Amino acid sequence: MVNSYVHLDIGNTVTRAKAWSASAQGARLLASATIPTPPALESVDLTESAFLAYTEVKAKVEESGQRFDPEEILVTVSAAGEPRVACAGVVKGISGESAKRAALVAGATVTDLLAVDDGRLEYQRILDLRRQDISMVVMAGGVDEEILGQGRHQLFNVAKVVAAGLPDRRGAGTKVPVVYAASLEGREEVLKIFGDSVDVVWTDNVRSRLEEENLEPARDAVLNLFSTGIRHDPRFTGLGRFGAAKVLPTGHSTGLSVRRMAEVLKQNVLVISLDGDTIQVFSQIRGVFTRTVTPVTRVQAKDVTRWLPSARLGERLDDVLANWKAAPGTLPASWDDLALYLAIQKQALLEAVREHSVTAIELRGIHRQRQIGETFQVNVKGGDTLVRMERIGTVCITGFLAGLLSPAALLSLVPDAFELHGVTKVYVDREGVLESLAAVQEEPDLLPESLLTPAGVILSPGRNEERIGTRWAFIKKDSTLEPLLVKPGEICHIPILAPHPVVFELHPSGKGDVGDGEGRRFSAQAVGFGSAYVDARVFGRKTDDRYRENRNTYRVFGVFPDDVLSGWERGMK
Amino acid sequence: MAVYALSRPRVLKDAPVRRLRVFPSVGESMVSPGSKVEAGTILGKYASRQRLRFVRMETAGDKIAATLLVTEGQKVKRGEVLGYYSYMFGLGYTEYTSPCDGEIEVISHATGRVAIKEEPSEMASHLPGTVEHVEEAVGVLVRTRGHMVVGAAGAGYARLGALVRKAGEPTEQVSPQKVSPQDADRVVLAGSTVTKELLEACLRSRVAAIIAGSAPFSVVQWYENLVQELDWDEFLARYWARELKKKDAVVPRPTEIVPALVLTEGYGNMPMSDEAFELLSSFEGKPVFVDGASLAGVAAGRWDAGPCVIMPFAGAGGEEATDGSAGSGSGDPAGRPKALRELAPGVRVRVYGLTREPVEGTVEGPAQEDSALRVSIPVNSVRVVTKGGETITVPAANIQALG
After folding, report:
1. Distance between CA atoms of A3 and A5, rounded to whole angstroms?
2. Which of the listed residues A154, B121, B168, B383 has the most CB atoms within 10 Å of its CB?
3. Which one of 3.10.410.10, 3.40.50.410, 3.40.50.360, 3.30.1220.10 gives the CATH number of domain A84-230?
4. pTM for this prediction
C-alpha cells in the first residue's frame, strides 16, 4: 500500500514543502519546494508562504502526469510560532533544569529560567518575566510528598513571582497558561496564590522523587497547549486551508526522528540542526533524549578569529559578524565571506555542543552510591555530562544550512567543534528528512545510510593525549587489514573507492582509549562513505601558525579551491 | 553580492507604518488605544534608569556634620541645595545640591548618604498617528502612514527633527567640521560612513539624530555604550562645559542627550543606497522620525521596534491607512512570497544586492535547477534581463516584483 504525505515546515528563514510517498519498502521523497518566510508580524498570515510552497511541490509531483492528493499533511512550525516558554523551578540545577528539559524536548524555545538561586532579586524576576513574549510557563519544584512539613516551601515564592509577572499573551489579550509540573502536595496552596489570574494545566511532577525525572507528562502538556494555541494565533489562521493538518513544533518533530534513529541503530546519536540564527543539538545517549537550542548571536568575534584561514580576513570580522547577526539569512557569496561564515558557524557549533554537554547530564541532586574506583573523585553526585564523544558513533547535520552548504564545508566544521574521539560517521541531511519523516510515518526504519548523505568518517584519538603512530588506524576491505596513513599533528584524507561496506579498526596503545576501554581495539562498520579522515592533531595544542593549520584543514576537506587557499597564504585579496 | 534568504525592502513609500514606542524601562502608559497622538504627545512615563541618585555629605562619627536643609519625603528640584558644610571657621564651605528632580527617599546619618528618588521621565511620541495598542509596561504601538527607510543597525532613542543634508551624494563621507551648533535638534543626513569624530561633533552640537550608510562596528559599540551611560551632568562635563554656567539651561529627557543613529546598510564601510539617499534628501527641511532602536532588546524579536527612519505624512494622525495588509513598520512582508509566485517571464522586477542600487529588469525565465552562488551554495534563481540588456542569474530572494 502506498501512502502520500506532505510536510510543510514554516521556518524562521524559509518555508519548505516536501512530498513523500511511503510504502512497505520505506519512505521516498518525491519533490520539495522552498519559499522565503515573511517576517513574523502580528498582521501577517505565515501560512501564505506554506500554501505557496504546497502549491509548488504539488505542481512538481504532477509534472509526471499523475495526480497528487496527499492523504495527510503535517505542518511543523518554528517561525515565531513555536512555543516560547519561560521555565520556573526552585533550585536552578535540579527542578529548574528538569522544567527546562521538559520544555525543550517538546520543541519549545526556552526564554528564561526562574529559580530562587538564579542570582536575581524577586522584582527583577517579575520584570524579566513581564517583558517576555511567551506562550506558556512550565513550573517545577519540590517532590510529591512531605514538602509542607518543613515550613513554607520556596515553591510558593516561585508561584508568587509567576503570578505577579505573567504577561498577557501579546495581541490576543488572553492569559498565558502555566503548566504545573511541580509538587503534588503544593497544588492547593499554589492555586490560592494564582487565583483567577492564571490558567493552570496540572500535570504529573517532573521530579516526583529526587532520583527520577519524568518529562513526558509535562512535554505532552506543552504540545497540547501549542496545538490548541497555534490555531488561535492570528498569524496561523490560514492553517484551516490544509484541513485537519497535524501541527507540531519543528524541534519536536526532529526529536522524534532522532530517537527513532538511535533505536534502529542501537547506538548513541548526536544530531545538529544548523538553522541560521540558532543551532539545535539533539542527542539520544544511554537512552536519555536531550535537546538544546543555542542562539548564534552569542558568538564573539575574538573567539572566531582562531578559525580563520588568513590574518587578513580578521580585519573585517567585527563588521561581518555584526551584519550577519542583524540579518542571519544573508548567505556568503564570495570565498572570503564563506571563510568568515564557516569560522562563525564553527565557533557557534562549538558553543552549542558545550551547552548541550552541560544540559545532557545525569540527574543532579540524587544520592548515588560511589564505586570503589570513584573514591577519590569529586563530581560523582550526579550532574556528570552524558556527552562523551567516545560514546557517540554517529553525528548528523540537518537544518536550513545543511541543504545549502556543501557536505565538505559541513564536514569541516565537525572535527574542531566536537573534539571527536574514536570512529565517528558523519551524515548530512540535505533534504531535511529528519524533521519530517518520523512524523509522517509512525514507525519509520530510519537507517541513516538509506536516507541521509554520508559525508565522511573521522577517526580521532580525541583528548586522550595519545601520540598515535602509523599503525593506529586500519581499514578492513575484503577481509584484509590495511594500515591508514597517519601524520602526527595533521588531518589526512583517505579516499574509499569501493562503495560497499568497510570496517575501520583502531589499535590504541596500552593507555589509549578509543571507546571500548584502555588498550582495547575498536572497530566500526561504515556503509556508503567515499572518504575517511584520520585526525591526528592534539586538541588544545598551541600552534605557531593557526592560519596555516586552518588552511591545511580546509585543503584536506576540499572546501576551497587551491588558488583561493594559496591566495590567502600569500596575503592576496 | 549579498544574497538575502530573507529579503526585506529597505525603502517603503507611502505605506502604513506601525511603530512600537518602547519605554526605556518599566513604564506606565498615559494614552489609550484609538487615541490620536501628535509628535509632542506624551505617551507615558517611566522610572529613570538609575531610580535612586545619591549625594554624600560630610559625617562626623554617626552624624552628618553638614547642615541639612531637607527632610525625608520632601520634593526637590535639580540644583536645589540639600545642605551645606562650613569648616575652618567659615573659611571652607561646601554646598550639596540635588542632581535631579525627585523626592528625598532616605537620609542615612551613619554614612552621610542622601538618596533621591528621581521623578519619572516622560516619553513623547515623536510620531503623529493613532495609538493601536498599549503593551503593559513595555510600550505603545503607534499607527501612522508615510515613507520609511529601514535601518540595518542603529543606536540611541527615538527623536524627531528637521532633516538637514550634509552630504552631496551617498558616497560622500561627512567631516566633523560640517556640523555646527546651528544643527541643534536637527536630523543630519550623512552620506557614507560615520566616524567617531563626526558622532562626537554631533553630540557637542546637540543634533537630534544622524542617518548614514554605515559605521565600523567598534564605533557603534562605543556609541551604544555612550547612549546607555551618558547622563546630563557627564555630558555637560565632557562635551558642553559652557552650558554649566547657564542657570536657565533646560535639562533634556534622559533619552534625548545622545543623538539617535541609524545606519541604512550596516556595519563596515558602505555608502548609503541611492534609493534611501534620494528619498531622504527629498525631505530636507521637513520633520523626520529617527529611532536607533537601542531598546530593541527590550522588545526582543519585534520587527516593529528595529532601527528606522519614518517620514510621516502631514496630518497622518487622522488619515493613516487601516488596511492590515502591509502594516508592518519594517517591510512588505506579504510582498515577498507573492512576488516569487509572480516571477513569470515578462514580469518587471527590481533586483536588490546586485549593485549598490537596485537594478530594474524583466524576468526571462527560471534558471537551471543547479544554479548556485560562486561558493557552491544552491539557490532558487531566475534569469533577468536588465535595462542595459545584460542577462543575469539572480537568486529569487533578491527580487521584488514591480507593479
Report:
1. 7
2. B121
3. 3.40.50.360
4. 0.79
